[in-house]
Each structure stands twice: as structure tokens, then as C-alpha cells.
Write a structure and sequence with these properties.
By secondary structure, the protein is mainly beta. It has two helices and 25 strands.
Length: 359
């Protein structure tokens, strides 16, 4: 009987499922259209490298998907991403967590963040030319509806994001304004206009002529291109090891299937590329110093399987390598699945049965 009780405890331990993981996604309560929406997340009980989709929905009238991004959980359990909001109208929106496959997150998780978008972009009308010839000044002129004589705040930055004017409050006459902004060269400039409520508008200007900034180009003779192929599904990804040469390395998948390309660069940083569909390859170009880049490829859809060909330019070698699964925190495929957990349960049950028969 003393032996039977520990065995029964062992059976109960094996039968108890793991506790659910936790995830919370956060975003501002309100954002002005045109400003990047920065969403962040925290997790508990999730292994680094786990991938989820963050989906942006318009919930103003019904619910419709606008954009989605795949994010990778980092070592500290966090993630962050940015959605563009330039074309979003005023209304109610949400960012939501969607698991890929089985949902591991418990009911206490906060997988939805609702927020508002304020779009007043049509209130600003720029009347000065968006492209101007260089004469030492950039004219920023227009009309800001509803501002009356309250004035507005103007800030101008150059292509290096350095402020060359303001922030400075300027006068408006029934919403109209005109300011000559001193510039020392041609180039691209960004004007930011804000009213007293804090709402901001941005407009890009180009000044032609002046002192042209020349960026030197560095030519590189590309190395050879090699490829390798392997079957891939969501349950059994394809793994590759790429030995690089120094310089820029371009890695791309075959077409015909909507592939998801993940890679770990020579610095150990993990990234994911999922921008194309079935007619275009997923591709990434990254710097290399002669080390090894690890690649994992899966289809976007759980129902799809196929053979993926991964090609890489400016490399020494590419090979299919199942051991790369360990680099991504995945189980390394073996020729036979170990039956130990189930066998341990059967052994415990058998021992209990024999002990009770002897009692």
C-alpha cells in the first residue's frame, strides 16, 4: 500500500495538463490618423520564439480586418509592433491576438485592445507648391479650417529628421497662414502643423537645386547562388543551414505556396518575413560576415503542405538540416517518437493493479 500511493500520485501528475499561458496586448486609447500605432505585449509562460498574429480591425460599423502582423515573443516575454494609420477614418478600432494553431492562452489573458482613431486630415489645405525651386527659403502656406485666428504651431525637419524651424506658434487669419522657412540646401523637408488641441498634420515638401548631397555607392561582386529543397507543413517545418560569405546575403523561397520565412542571423537575432502570397517569393537581404544563418520555412495555412526551395545568393553552402529545429526552440525531428511518457503511465497502472491483487 505504501508503494501504491506514490504510484497513484505519479499517475495524477502525468494526467494534469500544463497551466495556461498569459498574454496582454496594449495600445493607446486614442490616436490621430497618420500617427504610427505602436502596440506592445507581455506574456507569461510562453517560450521565446513563439509566434502569434496581431490583427488590426475596424469595429466602427461591424468588424473588418485591416492589417495583420506576425510577432515573435522575445526572451523577456515581450513583443512590439507598429501599424500605419494614414488611411484610417475616425472611428473605433481594435488590435487582437490570434494564435497559430492551438490556443495556449488562458481566460485571464487580455487579447483585445479597443481604441479610437481621430481623423481630421481634410481640415488642412496646403496652398504652397509641394515641390519648390531652391532660393534659400521654403514657403509653407495653407488654410486650417476651424482654427480661425487661434494660430498654429509649425515645426519643419529635414531628411535627417533634424529640426530646422520651430516648434513655433504662428499667426492665422481666418485659418490662413504663410511662413517662409529658411533652408540652406535642396532636399526633402517635413512640415508638422498642430492646433491648440494638439492634433497634428504632416506634409512633405521637396526643394530642388541648392547643394546636392551625394551618397557614395559601394559596388560588390555577388558570390554564387545555391539552393536546397525540403518538404514543409505547419506541423513539420523545413529547416536549413546557410554558410555565408562576407557582404550582403539574399535569401528567398520558391513560389506556388504562401510561405512564412523565419531566420536567425549571425548575431543570433530572430526575424520573420511574411509579406507575399502564392505568386511571389518571401525574400530578405541581410549583412553577413562568413558565419551561419539558420532558416525555418512553413506554409501560412495549416491545411497546406508542399516542397519549398530556398535559394541564397553570396553564400558558400546551403543544406537541409533537421538539427536547426533546436535553434528555433522546436523539437528536433527523430526517426522514431519516444514512447516513454505513455509507457511510464502503463507501467504505473500495471504496478498498481498487481499490488492490489496481492492485498
Amino acid at each position: 500500500m505504501r508503494i501504491a500511493l506514490p504510484l497513484l500520485c505519479l499517475i495524477c501528475f502525468l494526467a494534469v495538463p500544463a497551466s495556461a499561458a498569459f498574454i496582454e496586448v496594449t495600445a493607446p486609447d486614442s490616436i490621430n490618423a497618420g500617427k504610427p500605432l505602436e502596440a506592445t505585449g507581455t506574456t507569461i509562460g510562453v517560450k521565446p520564439g513563439y509566434v502569434v498574429d496581431i490583427v488590426l480591425y475596424d469595429t466602427t460599423y461591424g468588424k473588418s480586418e485591416i492589417d495583420r502582423q506576425a510577432v515573435v515573443i522575445q526572451g523577456d516575454g515581450t513583443f512590439n509592433l507598429t501599424f500605419e494609420t494614414d488611411d484610417l477614418r475616425s472611428g473605433t478600432y481594435s488590435v487582437e491576438v490570434q494564435s497559430r494553431g492551438d490556443d495556449i492562452f488562458g481566460g485571464s489573458s487580455k487579447k483585445i485592445k479597443i481604441f479610437k482613431v481621430v481623423n481630421r486630415n481634410d481640415e488642412l489645405s496646403i496652398t504652397s507648391p509641394k515641390t519648390q525651386d531652391y532660393d534659400g527659403t521654403l514657403t509653407v502656406a495653407g488654410t486650417l479650417a476651424k482654427s480661425g485666428d487661434d494660430g498654429l504651431r509649425l515645426t519643419v525637419t529635414n531628411a535627417d529628421n533634424a529640426t530646422i524651424y520651430g516648434p513655433k506658434w504662428i499667426q492665422t487669419d481666418a485659418g490662413a497662414f504663410s511662413v517662409p522657412v529658411p533652408v540652406t540646401s535642396g532636399g526633402t523637408y517635413m512640415a508638422e502643423i498642430a492646433d491648440r488641441s494638439g492634433y497634428t498634420w504632416t506634409t512633405q515638401f521637396t526643394v530642388k537645386g541648392g547643394v546636392a548631397e551625394v551618397t557614395p555607392t559601394v559596388s560588390q561582386t555577388p558570390g554564387p547562388t545555391y539552393s536546397a529543397s525540403a518538404p514543409a507543413s505547419r506541423g513539420n517545418p523545413a529547416y536549413f543551414a546557410i554558410e555565408t560569405l562576407g557582404g550582403q546575403v539574399t535569401i528567398s523561397t520558391s513560389t506556388g505556396t504562401d510561405w512564412v520565412l523565419e531566420y536567425i542571423d549571425e548575431k543570433g537575432e530572430r526575424s520573420i518575413v511574411n509579406n507575399q502570397g502564392t505568386t511571389a517569393p518571401e525574400s530578405v537581404t541581410l549583412p553577413a560576415t562568413g558565419g551561419i544563418v539558420y532558416v525555418k520555412v512553413t506554409p501560412q495555412l495549416y491545411t497546406e503542405t508542399g516542397t519549398v526551395t530556398v535559394a541564397a545568393a553570396n553564400i558558400k553552402k546551403i543544406s537541409v538540416d533537421a538539427a536547426v529545429a533546436g535553434k528555433f526552440g522546436d523539437p528536433v525531428p527523430t526517426t522514431a517518437q519516444s514512447p516513454m511518457p505513455f509507457g511510464l503511465v502503463l507501467l504505473a497502472l500495471g504496478a498498481v493493479f498487481l499490488l492490489f491483487r496481492k492485498i
